[in-house]
Structure formats: C-alpha cells, structure tokens
Amino acid sequence: GGEIRQSSPSPSSSDRRRQLRAPGGGFKPIKHGSPEFCGILGERVDPTIPLEKQIWYHGAISRTDAENLLRLCKECSYLVRNSQTSKHDYSLSLKSNQGFMHMKLAKTKEKYILGQNSPPFDSVPEVIHYYTAKKLPIKGAEHLSLLYPVAVRTL
Asked: Per its UniProt entry, which superkingdom is the organism in (predicted)?
C-alpha cells in the first residue's frame, strides 16, 4: 500500500475547516476539535526519560504516517520517528503553517544535532526539551517552537 490517497472526503473535513481560526484572530481552545493524542500546550518534556519511553516517540513510522497524525493537530505539533534514510538518525516531524516539516536529528560523535545551527545534545529528549522553549534553528521554522507533543496512541 504505497499509494497516497489525497482527496478522500472524510466526514469531519467540513467541521475541521470551520474551527481553524476563531473570529477576530484569537485562538479559542476547541475541546472537541483535536483528537486525544494531540498534545497539551506546555507539556514538559522530561529529558531524563529515555527516548523509547517518551510519548512523542513513534518509532518506525513513515513520513506519510507522521503527516497523517500531524494533520489532525495544531500548528507546532511535533513527533519524533526513526529516520527512513539512515538507521542511526531520527526525524523530527513538525506541523507548520506551511504544511509539514521533517528535520533530521543527526548523530555526530555521540551527540545529536537538529539542522546545521543547533548546539549538540547528548540525547534526542534533550534536543526536544531545548526546543520546547527556544525557536527552531531551521529555515522556514524560525518562529516555531515545539509546543504540542503528539502522543503515540496505545491500542
């Protein structure tokens, strides 16, 4: 199943359009709007918890799967998954106002960096923790921080 289905109208797509922006530009929290796995603002990332136990670590999901999860969540929602191109790296998938961004968390000399301008970190959770409070050093995402962790849905 590698085909990408774009235009299957889901019953909720019309509801979703209605609740994107509250009138007057203010953001009103919409209780019914986001699925339960979409994160809560300011949820603290504990950098001492190993990556495998972090709620926002989704393991070996594809880029498409990541986008399908993020599509239901707010801008600045994020998750971490295994990189599909190199097995020692991870990818940070982020929803921005332009769509989706996938940034490599590259491992160099036992340290992790996010993009070219990132300081090195000892672990992926430390990278994520840092960028929940700082703007991302990534072109196209300079105004974004990691605000809403997308939790793994436990079946």
From this structure: Eukaryota
In a domain, 13, yes or no: no
Whole-number Cα distances in Å, 56 to 7, 23, 120: 28, 31, 20
The length of the chain, given as a count of residues: 155
- H-helix or E-strand containing 18? helix 13-18
Residues 100-123: tens digit of each pLDDT: 999 999 998 899 999 888 999 999
Q: List, for residues 45-75, the tens digit of each pLDDT value.
A: 999 999 999 999 999 999 999 999 999 999 9
pTM: 0.74
Domain count within the chain? 1
**The two structure tokens encoding residue 71:** 């599509």
Span between the terminal Cα atoms of the chain, in Å: 21
Q: Print the domain residue range for 124.
A: 57-149
Query: 150 phi and psi, to 5 degrees?
Result: -90, 115
